[in-house]
Amino acid sequence: MKQVIFNETGHPEEVLKLEEAELPQPKPHEIRIKVSARNINPSDIMFVRGMYGITPKLPSSAGFEAVGTVDMEDEKATIKKGTKVIFTAIGTWKEYLCIPAQTVIPVPDAMPDEIACQAFINPMTAYGMIAASGLKEGDWVLVTAGASAYGKLVIQMAKSKGIRIACTVRHDDQKESLTTLGADLVINTEKEKLQKVIMEKTGEGVSVVFDAVGGILGAKALASLKNGGRLMAFGALSLENMPVNSGLMIFKNLKIEGFWLTTWIEALSNEERQKAFKTVLGFLMKQEVKVDVAGKYPLEEFKAALEAYQKPGRNGKIILI
User: Is the same domain home to 109 and 145?
Assistant: First the structure.
C-alpha cells in the first residue's frame, strides 16, 4: 500500500515522502479501513512541524481525519465489512489503516466522501465551542479566520441558534460568501480596524471570541470583547503567541481559555457524545448546509495538495483521495 510518512519534523513539503508499505493486519479488537478521502487541517501541518499538542513517534504518517470503508472486521464483528465510517487517528495519509472498532462513526453511504472526511474535527469543534461558550440568542460572537472551513460551519451553526456573528477575513472577495452563510458582520482586518468596527456595530463589544489565529489578531480580538467577555483559543494559525494586555484583562474582567476537541469529547458522557455526533451528522446532511472543497488530489500527489493548501485566499478544503 501507499503511505505518506516523515522521519523528522519540519516543513511538510520538505520532510514528507511517499513510500510503499505492507498491508497492515488488525489486532482482534481492531478493524481495517480502506481510506477513501482525507482533508488537510492546520493541525496536520503543525503535527508534522512538531508544534502540535501531540508529539509524533517517528517515523509517522501525517493526518488526523478521514473517511473509508471497513475492509476487515474485528473479532466481535462490531462494525460490518463494507460499512462507511469516519474516524480520527494519528496518520491517516495511508491507503489502509487499523484502529479500534469502537472509535469509528458509521455514516450514511449517501454522504459524499468530500463532506464525510471533514465531518469530525471542524464540525465537532464548532458544535462543542458553541455549547461550551454559553452563548444565547442575540449574543455576539467574533470568529477569527471566518473564511476557514471551521469558520463557515460555526457561522451556520450559530445562526441557527439566533446568535449574532462577526468574523474576520483578509480578502474582500470573501465577504459576500460569509454574509450569504449568515454572518452579520464581516471585517477585512487588512483594511479595517477590528476593535473600532466591532464597537461601532455592536455598541459594547462581543460576548465571546472564537480565536483560531493567535498573535496580534488574537490580541485585537481580545480587545473587542465587552466587559466580562471571554476569548476561547483553539488554534494558532499565525504560529505566534498572543501578546496579552494585563490592564485590559483586569479592568474589563476578561477571560482567556483554551479549547481542544479531544479534551472536550473525553469529558462527555457516552450519551452526550452520541447526541453530539448525531446532531453534527444530521446538520451536515441538510441540503442548505454548505461545505466547500477547493481541490481534490490523489494521495501520491500530496506535494501538489500542500501547495494548493498554502495558496492565499483559498476558499474551501483540500482533499487527498
Answer: no
> Residues 150-172: pLDDT tens digits?
999 999 999 999 999 999 999 99
Please give the tally of structural domains in the chain.
2
Q: Are residues 147 and 212 in the same domain?
A: yes
The answer to whether 66 and 90 are in contact (CB under 8 A) is no
- Encode pLDDT of 272-318 as tens digits: 988 998 898 888 877 666 777 889 999 999 999 999 998 887 778 89
Range of the domain at 249: 122-263
- pLDDT for 289 equals 65
Q: Would strands 140-143 and 65-72 be described as parallel, antiparallel, or unpaired?
A: unpaired
In three-state secondary structure terms, 292 is coil
Distances from the Cα of 115 to the Cα of 30, 39, 126, 210, angstroms:
25, 9, 15, 23
Q: Assess if residue 276 is contained within a domain.
A: no
Which is nearest to 49 in space by CA: 239, 228, 315? Answer: 239
